[in-house]
Amino acid sequence: MIFQTLDDKRECAGIYYDGELHFNYSNLPAKLGGTWKYVPSLEGLRGVKYANLYVQKFDPSEVCPEHLRDDWTEVQEKMMNQHRAMKIAKVDLSSGCIWDMLPLTVLKEFCEVKNEITEYILNNYDKPKNYSHMFDISVMLQDIKQRKLNIDLSQLSTTDDLAQKFLTQVKSRARYIDYNQFGTKTGRLSTRKNSFPLLTMNKKFRSILRPNNDAFFELDFNGAELRVLLGLLGLDQPKNDVHDWNVSNVFANNLSRGEAKTAFFAWLYGSKDPKIRKYNKMLEQFYDKESLLDSYWDRKTVITEFGRTIEADEHHALNFIIQSTAADLTLMKAAKINNLLKERSSKSYVAFVVHDSIVVDISMEDKNLITEMKEIMSRTKWGEFGINASLGRHYGAMKKAK
């Protein structure tokens, strides 16, 4: 049976099926077959298929079949009109359940067409090989969305024009992070329009983010993309800093760490700067670029270790292989840490993910889990990755943790 959830919020457990709205989860039909996407109120419900993971799109509009296009456009317009009215009336849609604020007839119409799109997707698309991986990420991202950020705006300068511009932006956004899992082709996360602008926030404003528990605990890979490259080529992982390792093993100690790092990323991203390109030959003699391309790129499409498919030309193929694999590896680790903290019923939780770093809002009651989280982060199919661990009373004060 195809159904739709009515609200993303965990406490707003309502669904639509068989032409009606239902709010009692203890009396659901035995077989709920499929819906558009996972939301936290469905946690623990087995056997449900999520259509957005089949097509790896956020919005049904991107994959709406032609025969439903007019109906979908019409119900979307009705919903947008209702949202505009709520905004004019200064009603905060995040403060309650959506069915208490919108006309139920409009909600039913919207869900019915969404049901038809969902059914079409599930009947006409194959289940992707990376479905389980994408599902684990979607669960983790929805958990993050449920957590209200502790934002201290008093940390922003009243005399700095850039700070005041950022303050205006933050005041108009939600106080939670709403990631778009499918916002980039490589799998790196982006955020939705109304989300707190975490990924584009200037680093000097990080101090406004405060933990809800005792501290922020951050884990990130030491040279994620370089370590992924080593792993994909079957090379051993260095125990020390991976860019220092490059200095010794690739550049024969003729470059500083900073210069070696710059040269590596210029090679990876295809920089045309002649001052940096002169090091490409040294990198290509050590890293077998062609064998990597032959393994993951068919001259049109990259298929990564995590089953992600990306159209790519020769200029971008190597970059996409490594960047996408590093992004999915980070998200897989974040999902595993998220599951660990939930299984232990801890106060701590994954607060957010920024590129290749995972930030946990940690309670000192859970300090016994720090070692386990570090082990989860460092152990990969390509060997043990070096990681960095930091701790801070706010996000702008992260310092290396001993």
What is shown here, in short?
The mean pLDDT is 93.
Describe this structure in words.
With 402 residues, the protein is α+β, with helices and mostly antiparallel strands. The protein has 2 domains: 124 residues, no CATH class; 220 residues, 2-Layer Sandwich (Alpha-Beta Plaits), CATH 3.30.70. The chain has 13 helices and 18 strands. The strands form 7 sheets. It has a 5-stranded antiparallel beta sheet. Strands 1-2-3 form a 3-stranded antiparallel beta sheet, covered by helices on one side. Helix 4 packs across helix 12 and helix 7 packs across helix 8. The chain is globular, with a radius of gyration of 23 Å.
Key features of this structure:
five-stranded antiparallel β-sheet; alpha+beta; 40% helix; 13 helices; Alpha-Beta Plaits; single chain
> How many strands, what sense, and barrel or not for the largest sheet?
5 strands, antiparallel
Low-pLDDT residue spans: none
The CATH topology of the largest domain turns out to be: Alpha-Beta Plaits
Helix content: 25-40%
Number of strands: 18
**CATH architecture label of the largest domain:** 2-Layer Sandwich
| N-end to C-end Cα span | 52 Å
